[in-house]
Amino acid sequence: MLILENLSKTYSKGKVKAVDNLDLQVKDGEIFGFLGPNGAGKSTTIKMMTGILQPDEGNIILNGVSIRKEPYVFKHNIGYVPDNHATYDKLTGAEYLNFMGSMYDVPAEQLAQKAKTLAQKFGIENALNDQIKTYSHGMKQKLVVIGSLLHEPELWVLDEPLTGLDPQSTYELKAYMREHADKGHTVFFSSHVIDVVEKVCDRVGIIKNGRLVAVGTIDQLKSQNSSLEEYFLNVTNRDDFVG
Q: Is the pTM of this model over 0.90?
């Protein structure tokens, strides 16, 4: 289980509260959708979850491991797909995956098999010996997705992962999210594509001005609206909205 406890982060020497006392629990075996308008605190929350940023207050716990007390162990159990598909362009795809696998101490035989299987699934097996600088935007995104899964992470964090993916790869990614959750792992999925979140996620949280303003299953959030999109627009556009 992923637990965020009283998580807060400020910028500009405390003048801007990006995340404000956020409390959240995400269960094992669950795909959790994370929604919010631009500047709501989504990326800051994710960067704290992955150890890129340090929270000013609060803690993050994954299956009993605290990021404050055991940061190395905590980060070792996370797979992260950022929204900018950052890679090392002078490496080949295979070299990048070997590097990612070594970062997480994946045994060589397991790494080779996992990389091959995922590269075939996402359709880039024939490009692994090419330098990443020759890859298209979508191919880089697929490579980052594969690299994040080589160590079978307990928590898989995806920040806008569908950007640049073709329909087939989008389908494969959504299917793998479900497969990963069905193994008992946790999937934390941030996206602006609300229709996909509605179809894929078990529960959804909505953040606004750094505060979590709604959490529930799709059916719970849709109970007063015809769609998740309508609910999202109501909760984020109206100051007097009560979810």
A: yes
